Amino acid sequence: MNRWLDAYADRFPDVTIDNTSDSTGVLGLAGPRAAAVLAAIAAPTNGTIPFMKLHTTQIQGVDVRVLGLSFTGEAGYVVEFYHHHQCAARGIARSRRPSHVDMSRYEVHCPLEHIQTVYDAVWRAGQAHGIENVGTFAVNAMRLEKGFRVWGADMNKDTTPLQAGLHRFVQLDKATPFVGQKALQQVLQSPCRSTPLFMFGAVGGAPWKLENPRPPPHPLDAWGNEAVWHNGKVVGNTTSGGFGHIVNKSIAFAYVPTSLAVDGNHVQVEL
């Protein structure tokens, strides 16, 4: 990405690019009480940040940028931090989920050197709401249930946004031309050979049959790069997967021919 941006920035002498990844920290806050927690420490957000919108504010005197976005796929926030450090950090705080309550989701971005200050403020404010820390496996399970793709696994530089099912994020008729616009317009007018298939399923013998219930003693889940079979032939491969604890099923993404990406079709994944 950096090389790509640098290549095009050379065309504009007044444009400079500064990669702040190593000095920026991100804290995720998601759950049914996320809006209340954020509102208590970062007024005047009031938990009303729309999806993909940005709000600048302060938490404990630290300048932060709050996004209406979360990798868990819920309504919530993410916080970023910036400073000169060798590695960026990401933390996730999540309040318990009652089944009948809508979820909030946020990302808070700020200088990495202040991430502990912001985390402590979020943690204190969340005590009254049952806040908990969440690990990456839990986050991955939730993003699979939501259908969120992962860069480098479910999509890469050889995958078009249309193949990855990201149509709503691409404005193909945008008046200002952008890199790849014509290519995507051509793809849209021609049949796409493969498309991501969001699969719900469970382990049911060898190979894995998506339509079968998951036997508790055999917790096998797709991880990525497993062969996808249909009528005795390999028709694609998984890109990522895991167990969805809310739907109580094993879940996987896979690229398969468009003819198979139809509701009701059954495929198998070899684990």
UniProtKB/TrEMBL annotation:
GO cellular component: a single term? mitochondrion
Q: Which organism is it from?
A: Aphanomyces invadans
Question: What InterPro entries does UniProt report for this protein, alphabetically?
Answer: GcvT/YgfZ/DmdA, GcvT/YgfZ_C, GcvT_C, GCVT_N, TrmE/GcvT-like
**What are the Aminomethyltransferase C-terminal domain coordinates in residue numbering?**
222-270
Q: Which residues form the GCVT N-terminal domain?
A: 81-174
Q: Which family does it belong to?
A: Belongs to the GcvT family.
Know the name of this protein? Aminomethyltransferase folate-binding domain-containing protein
Pfam families the record matches: GCV_T (PF01571), GCV_T_C (PF08669)
Q: Where does substrate bind?
A: 107
